[in-house]
Design a protein that fits this description.
- This protein is mainly beta.
- 6% of the residues lie in helices and 50% in strands.
- The chain has a 5-stranded mixed beta barrel with strand order 5-6-10-9-8.
Length: 221
């Protein structure tokens, strides 16, 4: 290979690997507004929102991260297979839950790893032993040591304490089903520019609704 050709190939490789040439990830943009409609057509769903007087519509696909935040849940939702995110006081190698939320896992959803960490800040009067703990619920049963409490074990490698809570605990609910959203609820959108300047939806966070338990299925005669 000639010296000139070697220099040419080296220059080309330098250009191709330079940061200015490399394709950079698109920056996301945050938009806020309210839900106008959840349009249904068969199994497909389209989220239509009002953002500063502009109407935007987005197809809801498996790639879109949907979070519908609802109030009005109770401790009956803490069962095997849901993701629990709670806050409580660590005492005697147990976390006594004071507040929390449950995420209703959907088929194919990636389950985050269980973890426990100190909150970034404490509420007035909150214990210095407060902890934020989250993970997939594997076991729920009545505590043998404290019968007035229920105890929960999260999926982990054995380094997380038991979670304790009293019946009647109020919980928030996070659903990944866009059908749990309703018109006029607040929505935060994370979007990226697509072809022809059309925005593509990455994440939709909707809140302001109340959790309604699913109606029991009617038994077939």
């Amino acid at each position: 290979m000639s010296r000139f050709r070697s220099m040419l190939l080296a220059s080309l490789m330098l250009i191709l690997t330079s940061p200015s040439f490399a394709q950079r990830p698109q920056k996301t943009e945050i938009r806020t507004g309210t839900v106008k409609e959840i349009r249904q057509r068969g199994r497909s769903r389209t989220l239509i929102v009002n953002c500063d007087g502009e109407e935007l519509s987005f197809a809801i696909t498996p790639r879109v991260n949907v979070e519908v935040k609802l109030t009005g849940g109770d401790d009956s939702l803490i069962q095997r297979g849901v993701i629990l995110d709670g806050r409580g006081t660590l005492s005697n190698k147990q976390v006594f839950l004071t507040s929390g939320s449950v995420r209703l896992a959907s088929p194919g959803m990636k389950v985050p790893e269980s973890k426990m960490e100190k909150p970034e800040s404490l509420e007035p009067g909150e214990s210095l032993n407060s902890q934020q703990i989250s993970g997939l619920v594997m076991v729920r049963e009545t505590s043998k040591e404290y019968p007035e409490y229920e105890e929960v074990l999260l999926r982990s490698n054995g380094n997380l304490p038991k979670i304790m809570f009293q019946k009647g605990l109020s919980l928030n609910v996070i659903s990944s089903d866009i059908d749990d959203a309703a018109p006029d609820q607040a929505v935060e959108l994370e979007v990226v520019p697509g072809r022809n300047d059309k925005l593509m939806l990455v994440r939709a966070t909707i809140e302001g609704g109340t959790y309604l338990p699913p109606e029991p299925r009617k038994k077939s005669k």
